[in-house]
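hi! just following up on the protien thing from before. the input was this:
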Amino acid sequence: MMRHTTVNRRDCLHGLLALGATSSTFGAVAQAQVVAEPQVAQPPELLALPAPWPQANRVGTGRLRYFGLSIYDAALWATPGLAASSYASALFALELRYLRNLSGSAIAERSLDEMRRGGALAPATEALWLRTMRTIFPDVQSGDRITGVNLPQQGVRFYVNGQPRNDVNDAAFGERFFGMWLAPWTSEPGLRTALLAGLTP
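and the predicted 3d structure came back as:
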């Protein structure tokens, strides 16, 4: 019995999201392009954000644990005006710093499982999102960081260890993806509370 439990925990752990854990139509996935404009000073703790980043403040932080194991530390950075009820329409960044090694494929699969919590998705959409996330999320090691930047009405810009990874040009994907942490349907309400701690009620 103990042996069976250990296997299940390991399987679940590798399935736990990383970016964590990012519509019926899905835009093309292209290499991220940062507009060349004067750079704004960025908070030193934040590893990766597009330039320019106006007045970014750290809203909250939290750690995801599973069966007592630390999976990643999360930090939410936002410009003034972010509201929990309308997060999809705001410019913000969610950064995860991994504390364990995880496979990119497992991250993508677990992400899709979590995104389903926000409502039913068309099979074609699920297949496309999963395929896309597998190209975005690499195998991660302890200390690696993945940052997702919500671009309102556009989609998500991803960074891995500070380097541009991909743009996902679909605002609906962005809303569902970031909903894994910020929406009321999240499977981790305690982490959601911690990330949104700095917002005015």
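Residues 2-15 form the longest helix (14 residues).
The beta strands are 29-30, 57-66, 69-78, 92-98, 145-151, 155-160, 163-168.
cheers
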